[in-house]
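Just wondering, does anyone understand what follows?

——
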Amino acid sequence: MHTESAWAKLNISLDIGEKRSDGFHSMKMIMQSISLCDTIELELTEDGKITADTTLPYIPADERNLAVKAAKKYFETIDRKDLGAKMYIHKRIPVGAGMAGGSSDAAAVLRLLNRLSPDPLSAAELLAIAETVGSDVAFCVQGGTALAEGRGEILTPLCDFPSCRFVVCKPKFSISTPELFNSFDRLKTHVHPDTAGLIEALKNQSIPEICRRMYNVFEDVEDRRMKTVAEIKSRLMDGGAVGAIMTGTGSAVFGVFKDDAMDVDALVKALKAEYGFAAAAVPVNQISI
């Protein structure tokens, strides 16, 4: 049995442009891998069957599971449809959190299959497969800190996020991605994140500068659940965070804490008791493909 970590992602910023001709929106996001991760266990088979079990019984085992879809796409690309895989996914990343849990699992499967191959694909070839699996999968394959544009597949690596601790908290509800986009489309105006300023702040390795510019435009939509998002942000800031925002389409919220911040573990415990999920993590630099 072979194993691979599937690192969660956070959106340091998230901006939305015009709707494209294919019906999707143009995105501009700065994304960051963090140490909170699922673990993929995988065994190759020669029966052409791909199966995935998880620690969460409600997660599908067919191609609705991006890990299964990724394995199928990989075998098709290398023209080995006779190959199969048995996978077991130990879930730690909360589902419906905006942290790319499914995408990170798919990315881990692609890296692992490529590592096991006697004739591995190039990084560019692996990323090309990732783009066909899901919008965030390409980022999750290479990880680290990156500017993601298009649907999220156009990636520009950025300077590593400075050393810090993240505290992530997810309330007991999730937010529908299509519903949130529809609500966003009804907004007459919205504020754009200072993406260029964020990139410069990353170059300067300045946590205060980064945190001042963190922004997620989805927080601007009129949705009663954003009240809980705001409450969690306040709890994080009161607990010593330099900055806090919602990640992706939510509902998870994270705060950035300096390495020497006090009582982070106590804050995680309190948030977990109140909201259902909370965890501390650190930045993960670019992942070896």
Summary: The first helix runs from residue 66 to 77.
